Amino acid sequence: MTRRQAALAAVWLLVVVGLPCLGHFWRQRRASRCAFDGLAITPIYRVKLVDQSGHSAEFCCLECALRWQATRGPVEQVWVTDEISGQQILSQDAIFVRSPVVTTPATGNAVHAFATTADAQRHIRASGGRILLGPGRPFAAQQQSRTPYPQSKSASATSE
Which of 136, 123, 129 is nearest to 155 (CA)? Predict the structure, then answer.
């Protein structure tokens, strides 16, 4: 084999092996993936946990974030996405609703996050469900040291 043939074979091998690998990595970067189960993250259900050292992990739903945290221990911050605006809010500021509407079929998650009580109540009127209070709130155990969320007097509010 001449030097030219060897060079052409090396280029051909690089193209045949390199292009699929490059395509795979490019596609992976486009879609955010859940740190727990690898599913694509739907932006309005995104949950982000930040540990004490500032490292963060993102999840496709509250259920995955809770399962992941159970294996890792406490985190410094929990950010959830307001389903109406798409904005990230701290979990202690969110209003959580458990309803029949499943956000992520793979996990069965049916807990929704809202920035305002009015938005949560609209979801309840449209789909059913109830506001989660006290220990029934996601990440409630972690938030005990912080100011507790004010208890609502709404008839649809309940503790789980």
Answer: 129
pTM: 0.71
How far is C-alpha 61 from the chain's CA centre? 4
Q: What's the pLDDT score for residue 22?
A: 66
pLDDT band at 20 (very low <50, low <70, confident <90, very high): confident
- Residue with the two structure tokens 């079929």: 105
Which residues face 79 on adjacent strands?
48, 90
Q: In this structure, what are the phi and psi dihedrals at residue 24, rounded to the nearest 5 degrees?
A: -60, -50
CA angle, residues 99, 59, 118, in degrees to nearest 5: 35
- What one-character-per-residue DSSP string does 129-144 give? -EEEEGGGSTTTTGGG
- What residues does each domain of the chain span? 1-30, 43-159
Residue 100 neighbours by CB under 8 Å, 6+ apart: 110, 127, 128, 129
pLDDT of residue 26: 61
Evaluate whether 39 touches 33 at the Cβ level (below 8 Å): yes
Give the DSSP H/E element, type plus range, for residue 92.
none
Identify the residue whose tokens are 């503790």.
Answer: 159
Distance, CA of 24 to CA of 95 (rounded, Å): 38
